[in-house]
Amino acid sequence: MEDLTKTIIEMATTYGGKILLAIVVLIVGRIIIGRLNHVAAKAIDKTSLDPTVSSLFKKFINILLYVILILSIIQILGVPMSSVIAVLASCGLAIGLALQGALSNVAGGVMILITKPFKVGDFVDAAGGTGVVKDINLLYTTIVTTDNKRITVPNGSLMNAVVTNYSSEETRRVDINYKITNDIDCEVVKKILIDAEASAEGVLADPAPFARLVDVDDDTYIFQTRAWCESSKYWDTYFNVIEACSKALRENGIEDPENRIAIRMVKED
């Protein structure tokens, strides 16, 4: 019993001061971390960062401060730092290998939220998904297709893919081709198509509608119309232009060569 008491007294004498100091550092450190987090949060909120990225930075700063605090306490207790660093390095390597794919997605999500190649509500074509972006988080981007299918794309794949953003600009151009029989005056066809484009709902006056002969195939003229519209009204304008031009051609007696039946007389020897 006396030996046990003596051992306890020796341990208390040896480690008591360190333990007490570690407790004090823990209490004071938590108070300081709270204030530093508050200051950092204010500074981050003043930036133009995406809310998701801002939240990530706040959490990262909080974790970093606590890691520093824990390492300081370990050092006060007299634990060799080389051993601690070795253990942390091993754990970090194991976690990194286990979460390699997830970490790649997180990195991709952060880059997407910072660089903003697209945002929620944009119509995009990316990594095999075409549709409206419904959600962007740190791991995945959710796209809803025009036929109402939900596609979940890993952010890591998006960062290595070509992304076409159809909503990034205010205006878009509607390009449509028409087949015309080659027995019609080109200038007449051009005027009919341009007037029809201009009358279609959604078509902008500036830049002006365009129509030109772009190709010739046997007995067929191929005309292309180009009309500009607001990006948000693209599909409505697209169908309006088709309807207006098709109606104008029909009313002026201009036919699609595929609707004709060609009869050729071949003289036999």
Overall radius of gyration: 35 Å
Relative helix content: 40-55%
| Uncertain spans | 261-269
Distance between the termini: 132 Å
Give the CA-based shape. rod-shaped
Would you identify the CATH architecture of the largest domain?
Orthogonal Bundle
Under the CATH scheme, which class of the largest domain? Answer: Mainly Alpha
Give the averaged pLDDT, no decimals. Answer: 82
Number of helices: 7
Global structural class: alpha+beta
β-strand amount = 15-25%
The order of strands across the largest sheet is 4-3-2-1-5
Major sheet, described briefly? Answer: 5 strands, antiparallel
Question: And the CATH topology of the largest domain?
Answer: Helix Hairpins
Annotation, overall tally of beta strands: 8
Give the SSE order as H and E letters: HHHHEEEEHEEHEEH
Counted up, domains total 3
Kindly summarize this structure in a few lines.
This protein has seven helices and eight strands; from the N terminus they run H-H-H-H-E-E-E-E-H-E-E-H-E-E-H. The chain has 269 residues and is α+β, with helices and mostly antiparallel strands.
Description:
With 269 residues, the chain is α+β, with helices and mostly antiparallel strands. It folds into three domains: 2-98, Orthogonal Bundle (Helix Hairpins), CATH 1.10.287; 118-165, Roll (SH3 type barrels), CATH 2.30.30.60; 171-259, 2-Layer Sandwich (Alpha-Beta Plaits), CATH 3.30.70. It contains seven helices and eight strands; from the N terminus they run H-H-H-H-E-E-E-E-H-E-E-H-E-E-H. It has helices at 2-45, 51-76, 81-98, 100-115, 155-159, 186-199, 234-251, and strands at residues 123-126, 129-136, 140-144, 150-154, 163-165, 171-181, 210-217, 220-230. The chain has a five-stranded antiparallel β-sheet with strand order 4-3-2-1-5. Strands 6-8-7 form a three-stranded antiparallel β-sheet, with helices on one face. Strand 3 (140-144) and strand 4 form a beta hairpin. Helix 1 packs antiparallel against helix 2 (51-76) and helix 6 (186-199) packs across helix 7 (234-251). It is rod-shaped and about 115 Å long. The chain starts with a helix and ends in an 18-residue tail after the last helix.
